[in-house]
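Async update (no meeting this week)

Hi team, since we skipped the sync, here's where things stand on the single-chain job. The sequence we agreed to prioritize is pasted below, unchanged from the tracker. I ran it this morning and attached the output directly underneath so nobody has to dig for it. Comments welcome in thread, and please keep replies under the output.
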Amino acid sequence: MADLTTDRLVRKEVALGQVREIQAPSNYLADLIAPMQTVQSDDVIFQYITPEVEGLAPARAEDAESELARKDDTVGTGRASIIDWAIKDHYSASDVTRYREFLRLAELSAGGSFPLTAGAMTEDWASKLARDTLLRRRKLDNRRESLTMDGLFEGAIAYNDGKIVFAVDYQRPSDQQDQAPTNGVWSLTTSNPIGDIEVMNQTMYDTHGVRMTRAIASPEAIRSVLNSDRFAARSGMTGGTGGAPVDPRYLIDGWGVEAAIAVIERATGVTFIPYDAVYRTRALGETTTVVNRFANAKKVVFLPPEEAVNEISDLGFAKTLTSPHPEGNWQSGFYEWERSTVDPWGYDKGNGVKMFPVFPHLEFSYVMSVLT
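Output:
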């Protein structure tokens, strides 16, 4: 456990029996694409998500008042609400009272009565708190992942929960967003994945002076490269004249998606990163759980080497900006709180984070729609 500040120890009373640090899970791509970076004010974040729309300063007469700089009205009102993501659990008065009574009973019965009953109750309560805490943290990490993937794959973030509505466009050039492969989608036997990547890379170099070296794609998109009859020809298993190509995966040990991707990487210099993370939702009152992907499985995002962007930007390709919060002792990043109500006497435990991903140079990326 990390060291706790005096402020945090004072705020974390023992009523619910839990003072803990929450460790971040390691299976999110947002940590790789847009790592956390601390800023000292929410205004800094909003300067990035409300970009300037005028490139030139207007002229004015010597005695005239200068014009107000115009910015996209992308976030509306409720500034802090947009970047402060939080969720809590409520424990009723009876839950807390029963736990406290069993905790007292366990202390009194250390030498005799009901140790198993009281011990089981207190242990179950601690386990429930731990599960709830990790689930809240998972939901916060899911939100960060969702924002990052929306910005990366779609070039924009649109949010509407019925109370807060905003849209942020990171200005990826239209001819680099959702482009079809030059030689046809990869589900066709006549597709040419290597040729498509080479054409894309030449376009990016001619336009921005940088070549793409990484690609994020779903396993479905990656598997589709094997549809190309060029890979069947490479294996020597092209079939008889006029016949359908023979699938080399059934005839050659070790031939499959990994082998095909290795061929593409050696030919193009682009390393593929498989990505198919999901989160689950279930509508209130429904019994069916829906699995939602963070990213579109039919698209491939091509990214530049990080060092190429670091030369021109303090933020690199992307960062998740995070600002201080009072419940985190005015430190940035994830925070937690515990609050009791007066009537009825219950407890709320919650977690939150003030953050927003920014992509200052999304023009140094390319999105290809490889499947129909």
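Quick observations from my side:
The first strand starts at residue 36 and ends at 38.
The radius of gyration is 27 Å.
Reply here if anything looks off.
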